[in-house]
Structure formats: C-alpha cells, structure tokens
TrEMBL record:
<dbReference type="InterPro" id="IPR044926">
    <property type="entry name" value="RGS_subdomain_2"/>
</dbReference>
<feature type="compositionally biased region" description="Gly residues">
    <location>
        <begin position="1"/>
        <end position="10"/>
    </location>
</feature>
<protein>
    <recommendedName>
        <fullName>RGS domain-containing protein</fullName>
    </recommendedName>
</protein>
<feature type="region of interest" description="Disordered">
    <location>
        <begin position="1"/>
        <end position="35"/>
    </location>
</feature>
<feature type="domain" description="RGS">
    <location>
        <begin position="69"/>
        <end position="184"/>
    </location>
</feature>
<dbReference type="InterPro" id="IPR016137">
    <property type="entry name" value="RGS"/>
</dbReference>
<dbReference type="InterPro" id="IPR036305">
    <property type="entry name" value="RGS_sf"/>
</dbReference>
<dbReference type="Pfam" id="PF00615">
    <property type="entry name" value="RGS"/>
</dbReference>
C-alpha cells in the first residue's frame, strides 16, 4: 500500500527531522520532561493525533485538487505513487514509468543521456520490449533516428504523446476508482 504522507520539496533535513529538532530545542528551553514538548510532535518521532488529522485533511484536499489538474497529480509524490498503484492494478503502469523516466532524462547531462538513451529505448520504446509503451510508428521512428546523438529532447514528443494517452484514458478511470475516492474521503 502507498505511504500517504505528504511528499514534496527537498531539503537537507527531512521535515520530520526539522520538526523534531525544533521540538527538542523548545523542550530543552522549557526543561520539560514530557515526551511531547509542544503537543505537535512526539519526541519519539510519532505524530500526535492532531497532526495526523491535519495531514489527512491536507492530503484529502490535495487529492481532490487532482480531479481538475492531471499535471499536479503527476508532480505530487503521493499522487504519482497512488496513480501508479492504480495503473499496476490495471496492468498498465508502463506508460507512467516511461513518463517518469523521460522526465528524468530531460534533466540529465549529455554524458548521462548518452548512457541512458539506449536503455530507455530498450525498456519502453522497442517493439520487443517487455514494457513497451503505446507509441505510434511516427514517434517510435523519430526516437530511432536520433538515438546515436541522444539529444535532450529525444523522448520529449513521445513523452507528451504518452501524457495525452494517460490523460484521456487512464486518468478518468483513476478518478472513478475506489482508490481515489478513498483518498478524497
């Protein structure tokens, strides 16, 4: 099952650790011996009931926003994981996995792209791939023509095509699923 904690931005210290450190500082200042310094975060690393309720409510609100914003769903850590779980149950998660890998490819250095292009092609684009995505001949040929140079946008048109397929086909089914409805409760 998917971890329903709010994902998101990156920092040197995980939000849980920041909160815990902040509580530890306040606890030392007030010299309390309680395992919960301010009621927001238990010193042993467990959320208090109030914090869990807030987090669930925040996730519920976030999940509801996905109904109107597919891009937001894909960019949210929990949203992406829940959508992938749904697609796995439908035996069709290869399109999302390709979209994620193509997104990573866009941010690679030229050297990294040269190494990664062939494996992405073999994993998702090749007609003999065990995880072949639903690309038409035009997009497949476009990638094959540029494989040797591995430009930054090598998979971009195919990624956009897959995005549209997921948006038109998978996303509406996801919004009707028990998994999504449970998140919104």
């Amino acid at each position: 099952m998917v971890n329903m904690s709010m994902g998101g931005g990156s920092s040197a210290i995980a939000p849980e650790e920041q909160s815990n450190r902040s509580c530890e500082k306040r606890s030392k200042k007030s010299n309390t011996s309680s395992s919960t310094c301010c009621g927001c975060f238990s010193m042993d690393g467990h959320y208090s009931e109030d914090e869990e309720d807030i987090e669930k409510r925040t996730l519920r609100e976030e999940a509801r926003s996905w109904a109107n914003n597919f891009e937001r769903l894909l960019r949210h850590n929990v949203g992406q994981k829940v959508f992938q779980e749904f697609l796995q149950a439908q035996f069709s998660d290869e399109n999302l996995r390709f979209w994620i890998e193509a997104e990573k490819y866009l941010n690679m250095t030229e050297e990294e792209r040269m190494k990664r292009a062939k494996s992405l092609y073999e994993d998702f684009v090749s007609s003999i791939s065990p995880c072949e995505v639903s690309l038409d001949a035009y997009h497949r040929n476009q990638i094959e023509k540029e494989m040797d140079t591995a430009p930054k946008n090598l998979f971009k048109n195919a990624q956009d095509y897959i995005y549209c397929l997921m948006y038109r086909d998978c996303f509406p089914r996801f919004l009707k699923s028990k998994l999504y409805k449970r998140l919104c409760r």
